[in-house]
Amino acid sequence: MTAPRITIVGASLAGLRTAEAVHAALPAARITLVGDEPLAPYNRPPLSKEAAETLARDTAAREAVFGKLLLRSKLSPAALSLRLGSGAVALEPGGVRLADGALVPGERVIAATGLRPRRLPLPGAEARRHVLRSFDDLVRLAPSLRPGARMVVIGGGFIGCEIAATGRKLGLEATIVEPSPQPMLRALGPRVAAAMAALHRAHGVVLLTGRSVAGFSDEGVILDDGQALAAEVIVEALGSHPNVEWLAGSGADLRDGVLVDDRMIAPGAEGLMAVGDVARFVNPLFGPEARRTEHWCVPGQTAKRVGETLAAEATGTALATRFAPMPSFWSDQHGMRLQAFGAPYLADACRVLEGELSLVGRAPVIVEYLRGGEPVGVLGLGANPAALARARARLDAALTETLTA
Amino acid sequence: MKVDVDMSICLLHGQCVIAAPEVFSFDDDGGLVWVAEVDEAQRADVEAAADACPEQAILLG
Ligand SMILES: Cc1cc2nc3c(=O)[nH]c(=O)nc-3n(C[C@H](O)[C@H](O)[C@H](O)COP(=O)(O)OP(=O)(O)OC[C@H]3O[C@@H](n4cnc5c(N)ncnc54)[C@H](O)[C@@H]3O)c2cc1C
Ligand code: SF4
């Protein structure tokens, strides 16, 4: 048998972890990792946190900051061929067509193309408007994060809240414009979101909830009620779009990411798999619906599953385990760590296990999330890691029960 | 094999504790403790912990 050629598209966390998993499963495979960014795979979460802070304080520190973001890999350079700087434009029989015209062959193609920020389809203030997904985005944003500057963040999700908090730390005035009644409402539920809103206000963030942006002027943004907010820095943090255009016509289900089965294989598209933020799959811990999950843990979990699938195929055996990964995410805002396990956003109720929501930011709080009376998630807010680990163990036990039920 | 954690970059995410509970744990004060020398049999768990660490703080030798 000749060595299989496996081409992974998207050279970020999911792409790199998948290359490692493929190599471990099929040591003879010839692996190519294709990325449109000219940079080697790097870590994104610090872009709205420490990396933003460091680069804003010293815009010359670019290389040092990137060095810290760079993902370490245990793959030897010989095991992987990296093709950076030209994106995939189409999946063709036999391989992947790149923007520069080249065809990268691959019997198997793995999509790890992640997401890109949504933008408001409104003209104006272009030079002041920013998004935050890539290192380039941060390099463009950092010089305007100056003490005293006015920053308007459009969208009160995690990335919006984090960059607003980082802005406050750097001495900017920060305003968040969020159409729903609370920031991070969908992810955290009304009670915790209200507590987080109070934390932001206590740190001087102006939260304009129930409001949206209607347009841009030369000075800043104009809200739906006509109010004008002057801003030297505008960050659009409105959520993201999956990067699936290059897979048009492949036969895969591309409604909201790439639909994959529990082997990470995309039904309908011969030889295609997907991993990371772009993959939509069923997690039996949370019911039969296929969902996309934008957490840092997903690239590692889905990459590992690709390895299991390829190893099972190679030996002609069935997969020994179900794919039921425990989601987790964290966020850092105003010096406080949020750490969640499970799927708090699916809950219909929550219960404070430890501390008090009115003290968020000042004392540790642990919240359990319930759906139909059953635990679906747990969240620590500045919590003691040992206490949170115990709460998580209970969640694990409860969810494993749903799995076997 | 040897396990070390660079505590100057560890942010106590606890992903390692989940991936390899026999090797990493939190003491009652919430500090991270780990077994510095582990069996070959635990290699897969420890490698999974190193991969799951968002700060890349775990060093294996
Ligand atoms: C600012 C920020 C803060 C975050 N903070 C946290 C956090 O605190 N906690 C947490 O759990 N998660 C956080 N995340 C989410 C986490 O970073 C993502 O879940 C993770 O990056 C997903 O990895 P991925 O490899 O699937 O996708 P991505 O990292 O999006 O990588 C996809 C790659 O594919 C490339 N690409 C796209 N299209 C093509 C194409 N056609 N051809 C070739 N290449 C292509 C992209 O340029 C990119 O390099 C944060 C994300 C951001 C942006
Ligand atoms: S996962 Fe990494 S950062 Fe988190 S506690 Fe373990 S070593 Fe520290």
UniProtKB/TrEMBL annotation, chain A:
Its cofactor is FAD. Keywords: FAD, Flavoprotein, Oxidoreductase. SUPFAM superfamilies: FAD/NAD(P)-binding domain (SSF51905), FAD/NAD-linked reductases, dimerisation (C-terminal) domain (SSF55424). It holds the Pfam family Pyr_redox_2. GO terms for cellular component: cytoplasm. The keyword Cytoplasm does not apply. Transmembrane segments: none annotated. Residues 5-290 form the FAD/NAD(P)-binding domain. One of its GO terms (molecular function) is oxidoreductase activity, acting on NAD(P)H. This is FAD-dependent oxidoreductase.
TrEMBL record, chain B:
Keywords: Electron transport, Iron, Iron-sulfur, Metal-binding, Transport. Pfam families: Fer4_15. One of its GO terms (molecular function) is iron ion binding. This is Ferredoxin. The keyword Lipid biosynthesis does not apply. Ferredoxins are iron-sulfur proteins that transfer electrons in a wide variety of metabolic reactions.
